[in-house]
């Protein structure tokens, strides 16, 4: 099982990754600031899974989204709230070339499956508790 990362751990990893990764890399050819369908041109061999935001003992994570200030799911400035959808279903991946962090999950619908990816920016990570 991949190591569970809470918001504080994700924030620490994101800050470290941002300090290391400043030069362009093959993983940055397509802007991934907001959620995107994973580009076919993205070389998956560049990525190593380093953790997960999915709690092992949570059989059905919430589908509630945390989108304050009129942000949308697709917004590049939407907060990364690990307890909320879709983050609570994400793996945390790191580019082996430059060290940048990405979140990845599979969006499934009635007739489709879509692999989605988003770059992690430390300033967007929020540790927001779920409503009681």
Describe this protein with a few key phrases.
132 residues; 5 strands; globular; five-stranded antiparallel beta sheet; 21% strand; 11% helix; alpha+beta
Q: What report would you give on this structure?
A:
The protein has 132 residues and is α+β, with helices and mostly antiparallel strands. It has one domain. It is 11% helix and 21% strand. It contains one helix and five strands. The protein has one helix at 7-20, and strands spanning 36-37, 47-52, 91-95, 101-108, 113-119. Strands 1-5-4-3-2 form a five-stranded antiparallel sheet. The longest helix has 14 residues, at 7-20. The radius of gyration is 14 Å and the shape is globular. The model has no long low-confidence stretch (mean pLDDT 93).
For the largest beta-sheet, the strand count, sense and barrel status come to:
5 strands, antiparallel
Averaged pLDDT, please?
93
Proportion of residues in β-strands: 15-25%
Give me the strand/helix succession.
HEEEEE
Q: Any low-confidence stretches, pLDDT <50, length ≥5?
A: none
- Through-space gap between termini: 28 Å
Oligomeric form: single chain
Q: How many domains comprise the coordinates?
A: 1
Strand order of the largest sheet: 1-5-4-3-2
Q: Helical stretch count?
A: 1
Shape: globular
Total number of β-strand segments?
5
Tell me the structural class.
alpha+beta
Helix content: 10-25%
Our Rg estimate from Cα atoms comes to 14 Å
């Amino acid at each position: 099982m991949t190591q569970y990362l809470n918001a504080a751990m994700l924030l620490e990893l994101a800050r470290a990754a941002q300090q290391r990764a400043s030069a362009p890399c093959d993983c940055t050819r397509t802007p991934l600031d907001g959620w995107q369908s994973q580009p076919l041109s993205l070389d998956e061999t560049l990525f190593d899974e380093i953790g997960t935001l999915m709690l092992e003992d949570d059989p059905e994570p919430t589908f509630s989204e945390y989108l304050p200030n009129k942000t949308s799911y697709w917004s590049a400035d939407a907060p990364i709230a690990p307890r909320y959808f879709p983050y609570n279903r994400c793996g945390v991946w790191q580019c082996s070339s430059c060290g940048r962090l990405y979140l990845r999950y599979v969006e499934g619908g009635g007739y489709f499956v879509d692999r989605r990816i988003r770059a992690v920016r430390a300033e967007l990570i929020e540790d927001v508790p779920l409503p009681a």
